Amino acid sequence: MKVLLTGASGQLGQAIIKSKPSFVELIATTRRELDLADDEACRRAVRQHQPDWVINSGAYTAVDKAEDEKELAMSINTIAPKMFAEELSQTGGKLLQLSTDFVFDGEQNFPYKTGQKKKPLGVYGATKAAGEDAIYDVLGNSNQALIIRTSWLFGAVGKNFMKTMIRLHRSQEEIRVVSDQIGCPTSTLTLAKACWRAIEKQKDIEPNVLSPQLHHWSDEGSASWYEFAKVIGELGCRIGLIERPAKVIPISSEEYTTRAKRPKYSILDCTTTRQFLNLEGIHWKESILNVMKQVST
């Protein structure tokens, strides 16, 4: 099986590479080899490599910056998936697209199911939601597309909240962290495993039977950013990654202004996905510990 991976240098891309099954021939591309802002380059990559799958883990994820770079965010998060879908519709290959909890507005207080109406608050969420729609427009009546939404992703490499908090716990006496936004931290390790399992499951789908195309995947449990930051300090201290945790002070979203508005509640209901993949979730605290063991001191 030949798989073309985008975003290979990112935190999820690195986890996907490390967890690659032995039977997969992986063509891992960074921005240098495949610029997702170049729609013709996206088309050309599919035509050149003729992959059985494209895993599109690359994305424009600078949530605040996206408010000022709408065209670039749209090119990467919406147009690129559309280009992949259109080319794959011709070659017969399949697309695994990574999406986000930011397609929802966070106004409800119970987990979001896959079929619920999307209502993004900012440019980032809107461009990811539009990317989903573009894929459905092209591949919606086939088994050539899978979309996996996830939330609050963290890993041992790249830029993410966990790594930032480790640095701040090491260097600061106090850290002020938002306590009124609720979600679920998700490890790149568990998400990468879910991606490969989703691809593997597609081999079992009988011809002319349409399988579920939209999935939610996060780790188990829920947390505020404040709780997330506290646990990072505690676990980091336990394994010697942090000498002494900083004091974490809870603040409101109003006290920490950002260019883009965030969902107040973005827990994803992963029940049907776990059943479909036959893959149990683990609690986000356990995931943090597993990832921290891979972080260099």
UniProtKB/TrEMBL annotation:
GO terms for biological process: dTDP-rhamnose biosynthetic process. It comes from the Bacteria. Its EC number is 1.1.1.133. Keywords: NADP, Oxidoreductase. GO terms for molecular function: dTDP-4-dehydrorhamnose reductase activity. Residues 1-295 form the RmlD-like substrate binding domain. Pathway: Carbohydrate biosynthesis; dTDP-L-rhamnose biosynthesis. It is an enzyme of class 1 (oxidoreductase). Catalyzes the reduction of dTDP-6-deoxy-L-lyxo-4-hexulose to yield dTDP-L-rhamnose. Belongs to the dTDP-4-dehydrorhamnose reductase family. This is dTDP-4-dehydrorhamnose reductase. It comes from Prochlorococcus marinus (strain NATL1A).
